[in-house]
Design a protein that fits this description.
This protein is mainly alpha-helical. It is built from 14 helices and no strands. Helices cover about 75% and strands about 0% of the residues. The longest helix is centred in the N-terminal third of the chain and has 72 residues, at about 1-75. It is globular. About 40% of the residues are buried.
């Protein structure tokens, strides 16, 4: 009797083990099926999303930069107004909340059982306020740089933002210094350093040597601030928000732009430049309606750029977003020669060759590395 009981228990145990093995196998097969089907679906949507973000970034950056130079060339001289239009266009993004309900395809957590606690209101307030103030200061520096530099020189100096972004990403985003990145840092630093000896005495702007130095320093400082801001944005996505939807991208742009707009408005009134805006509009060489249109399209261009830049940060990394941004910088000097008759002297040519050669050799490897992460 005891032996029969032991045999029955053994049979039950064996059957239980088989059931457990079958269950584990089904779970494993399910995960494997999921992992083989989801990446295929994700890749198609993800590449389409990345293509759209890249187009937005390049188109918005080129259009806004060229129109910003046009504003100064045709009679605009308010640094605070030029700064305000870089961030004040965010209300046009609000309707996108209703037009886009899909989630970003780059899910870093496929386990639906994992719950993510949303950050507190105070944390979000501190995050958006800090980024907004940094954005306002950065835009002001860019405006001063574009005021005193030709658009071609300005764009070539802005290429240094990739080096600053790599530096800050090393500390904030655990970015390793690969040979691609080190090579980029060296060449972009040399490219920007050459422009110290450039003379912008003709073309789209004619300024004294002192104002040129101010424009150069402000543009380099703005590039450093932009690199820091992109690294901080990636840090906030990874450590604070921990969500990957398009609405989160819109939140990041809209709330920090709102804070930046309020800060810049305060600067506009505190500086007294608001009193001369009416006179500036009347004296605009292309007319009052063109004055308004130029400012409106600058605002739209920078918001289109923001969607592309922040979207690429969320989908890949801040460094990859900056690589794409830097890829578009040589486009602007070409248009500047056509529309603003900016001279392309030897120093600018060497600087541009360094930027283009650096990007052609290194950005492909760097981009593939970031895309596959």
């Amino acid at each position: 009797m005891g032996e029969a009981t032991e045999i029955q228990l053994q049979i039950l145990a064996d059957e239980g083990n088989k059931l457990d093995e079958n269950s584990a196998e089904r779970k494993t097969n399910g995960i494997m099926r999921q992992s083989t089907t989801i990446p295929g679906q994700r890749t198609y949507k993800w590449w389409l999303l990345m293509t759209n973000y890249t187009f937005f970034l390049l188109a918005g950056q080129s259009m806004a930069t060229l129109l910003g130079r046009l504003y100064y060339d045709k009679g605009g001289n308010s640094k605070w107004m030029a700064t305000l239009v870089q961030v004040a266009g965010f209300p046009i993004l609000i309707p996108l909340y209703h037009l886009s309900s899909y989630k970003s395809s780059n899910h870093k957590t496929n386990n639906s059982d994992i719950t993510i606690n949303p950050p507190s209101v105070l944390v979000l307030l501190a995050m958006y306020s800090g980024l907004g103030v940094l954005l306002a200061a950065d835009c002001l520096l860019y405006s001063v740089g574009l005021l005193y530099l030709s658009v071609s020189t300005y764009s070539l100096i802005c290429a240094s933002q990739l080096a600053f972004n790599a530096f800050f990403s090393f500390f904030l985003n655990s970015q390793k210094f690969t040979p691609f990145i080190i090579n980029s840092l060296v060449l972009l630093t040399i490219s920007s350093a050459l422009l110290v000896f450039n003379n912008d005495s003709s073309g789209s702007t004619s300024v004294s040597k002192g104002k040129y130095v101010i424009g150069f320093v402000c543009t380099v400082a703005a590039s450093a601030g932009y690199g820091l801001m992109m690294s901080l944005t990636q840090f906030c996505f990874q450590k604070i928000l921990k969500k990957e939807t398009f609405n989160v991208v819109l939140d990041m742009i809209i709330y920090q732009s709102l804070v930046a707009t309020l800060v810049i408005f305060a600067g506009l009134f505190a500086s007294g430049e608001w009193e001369s805006l009416g006179k500036e509009m009347k004296g605009f060489k292309l007319g009052k309606s063109s004055y308004i249109n130029v400012l409106v399209w600058i605002a739209i261009g920078w918001q289109v750029f923001s969607i592309g830049a922040v979207g690429l940060i969320q989908e890949a990394s801040s460094l990859f977003s900056n690589v794409i941004s830097t890829l578009g910088l040589p486009i602007v000097p070409v248009f500047a020669m056509v529309f603003f008759h900016d001279p392309m002297n030897e120093i600018k040519v060497i600087s541009m060759v360094l930027v283009i050669s650096n990007l052609s050799r290194n950005s492909t490897g760097l981009s593939i590395t970031k895309l596959m992460c």
